[in-house]
Amino acid sequence: MHSRSIITAAATVFVGQALATDAIPVTGSPAGVVYRAELPEEPFFAGADIEGNVRGFISGSAPADGNGVAFTVSFENLPTSGGPFAYHLHAAPAVDGNCTSTLAHLDPFMRGQQPPCDSSAPQTCEVGDLSGKHGTISSTSFTATYTDPYVSLEEGVGAFFGNRSFVIHYANSTRLTCANFVKVQEPIHSSNHSLTSTRAPTPTSHSHGVPTGTGSFTTTSHGSSNPTDAPLPGAASVNHFSVPMLLMGLAAVIFAL
């Protein structure tokens, strides 16, 4: 039984790695769509050494070329200790202000949180790991503007964030505060702008430039302690022959023990 448990755990990890792929750039973001999440008045973490809560917001809209999402990030009144602070898009909205209910990071390509995100290769990071790709927070106030090519404004796509949330974490992964995104503007219908996101092929090289922002680019291990979510709609396809055969082989080994 012990041997079977070890093999089962190893098989789960191996299959998860086999399914993971690089994020796919998003094109054709609908013009005029804006989602914004503003932090509440009280922090989620009761031990926060601040008066009130962190103040600020994240907003996302379509850039001029319709590729990815242009983000504006603005925070102030962060704690003077416990940083550098990380912030991520999470898979679910917060229920009644409970940041635990946001689940894990937005990760439709099943990348997982380890190893930590490499900002020089953002396509290999979790889609929702904004601070990993664009810089963590090392002061009591923070502003940044950047375009993330792997996040989507199109509903129904795995990389869509408009019905989700973001969470600010201490360096030790404790959830400090969170907020849900809401739509604040509607699409602009234009014959010159596609309203349908194109599923671009997986890039053949990792030469994408890292969007610039005003945050520091400190590499740190951070994120939710929750397990990575199951695949979300719009995740990249995988080889439909090799994975089932792998699973069948592993099952045969497990049940033979």
From TrEMBL:
Pfam families for the chain: Sod_Cu
Record keyword Secreted present: yes
Region listing for Disordered, in residue ranges: 191-231
Bias type Polar residues, positions: 191-207
Gene3D superfamilies, alphabetized: Superoxide dismutase, copper/zinc binding domain
Feature: compositional bias, Low complexity: 213-225
GO MF annotations in UniProt: metal ion binding; superoxide dismutase activity
Reaction(s) catalysed by this chain's protein: 2 superoxide + 2 H(+) = H2O2 + O2
Protein's cellular compartments: Cell envelope; Secreted
A GO-annotated cellular component: extracellular region
Location of the Superoxide dismutase copper/zinc binding domain: 57-171
Similarity comment: family membership: Belongs to the Cu-Zn superoxide dismutase family.
Protein name listed in UniProt: superoxide dismutase
